[in-house]
Write a structure and sequence with these properties.
Shape: globular
Distance between the termini: 10 Å
Strand content: 5-15%
C-alpha cells in the first residue's frame, strides 16, 4: 500500500517561530515535503514564493480570507449579504495560490449571524453557500484548483459555524455538483460531531479531497491521550488508497519537533 503523505499546518505547528517563511524552513528540516496554512495574507507573497522554491516544499492548501475576525467573521461563503466580499476574498486566495502553486483552497462557510437562530436562517445560508460555491467552482476550474468545504464542530470549537457535519456538507456538495468542489475531512471535527468514523470515511471517501488530523478532545498530537486510534485510521486510509495529503492541524503539547515522534515512527515503519 502507498505511504500516506503528511503536511505541516504552519498556522498550528512551528509557532515557536514568528513568521511563515521560517516555519516552512522548519517544516522542511523536520522532514515534511509539504505544508498547509490558514491565512498567509499578512505575509509577503514574494518571500513566501522564494522560500517555497528554495526548500522545494509544496504548499498544498490555504483558506479563503476569514473576513473581519475582530467583528466575529470566520469565513463568508454562506453569510447573507457578504457575497461581494466572498468573491473579493476568493480573488486574493487565488492570487496567493497561483503564486505558490497551491492546488487546494478551503472555501470557508462562515458563522450564523449574531442574533439569528440556526433553524431560521439555515435554508437562506445554504442557498447562498451553494451559489458562492458554484461561482468558485467556475473560477477555480480555469486555474486547475480544487475548492474544499470543511465542517467545523459546533459542540466545542465554534457553536455558530454554519457547516458542522459531514452529512450537511455532502448534501451541499450534491446540490453544487461540481467535480472540483470537494470535502475536507478534519477528523477532529468529525469525531466530535458524529463519531462513527469508519463508516463515515467509507461513505464519504469519494467526496474527500483533503484530510486533517488532531486528537480528541485536546486537539494535540495524534498519539497523545484521547479518543481516536490513529494507527487504525491511517490503515483505513491506506486500504482505501487515499492519495491526498493529511494536514497536521493540531496544538503541540510542547515544542513542535518534540511531538513528531508519531510521524517519524510512521515514516520508519511504512517504508
Amino acid at each position: 500500500m502507498p505511504q500516506l503523505k503528511f503536511c505541516a499546518n504552519i498556522s498550528w505547528l512551528f509557532t515557536e517561530l514568528p513568521d511563515f517563511s521560517q516555519r516552512i524552513y522548519a517544516a522542511a528540516s523536520a522532514g515534511f515535503q509539504a505544508v498547509e496554512a490558514a491565512w498567509l495574507y499578512d505575509s509577503d507573497l514574494q518571500e513566501l514564493k522564494r522560500v517555497r522554491e528554495a526548500t522545494g516544499v509544496e504548499v498544498v492548501l490555504i483558506n479563503t480570507p476569514p473576513g473581519d475576525l475582530k467583528a466575529g467573521d470566520l469565513g463568508l461563503g454562506a453569510v447573507p449579504g457578504r457575497e461581494t466580499e466572498f468573491k473579493q476574498g476568493l480573488d486574493l486566495a487565488l492570487k496567493y495560490a497561483n503564486a505558490l502553486d497551491c492546488k487546494r483552497i478551503h472555501l470557508m462557510a462562515g458563522r450564523i449571524p449574531v442574533g439569528s437562530h440556526r433553524a431560521a436562517v439555515a435554508k437562506e445560508m445554504e442557498a447562498i453557500f451553494v451559489q458562492n460555491l458554484n461561482y468558485a467552482a467556475d473560477v477555480l476550474s480555469k486555474e486547475g484548483i480544487t475548492g474544499l468545504i470543511e465542517p467545523i464542530n459546533t459542540r466545542i470549537t465554534d457553536p455558530r459555524y454554519f457547516l458542522d457535519s459531514p452529512h450537511q456538507a455532502a448534501a451541499i456538495l450534491e446540490k453544487v455538483g461540481k467535480p472540483n468542489i470537494k470535502l475536507q475531512m478534519d477528523v477532529f471535527h468529525w469525531q466530535i460531531m458524529d463519531g462513527n468514523l469508519t463508516q463515515n470515511i467509507h461513505k464519504y471517501f469519494p467526496l474527500i479531497g483533503h484530510v486533517q488530523i488532531a486528537q480528541v478532545p485536546g486537539r494535540n498530537e495524534p498519539d497523545s491521550a484521547g479518543e481516536i486510534n490513529y494507527s487504525y485510521l491511517f490503515n483505513t486510509l491506506e486500504e482505501l488508497s487515499y492519495q491526498g495529503h493529511i494536514g497536521c492541524e493540531y496544538k503541540p503539547l510542547g515544542a513542535t519537533n518534540e511531538g513528531l515522534g508519531w510521524l517519524k515512527d510512521y515514516w520508519t515503519h511504512s517504508k
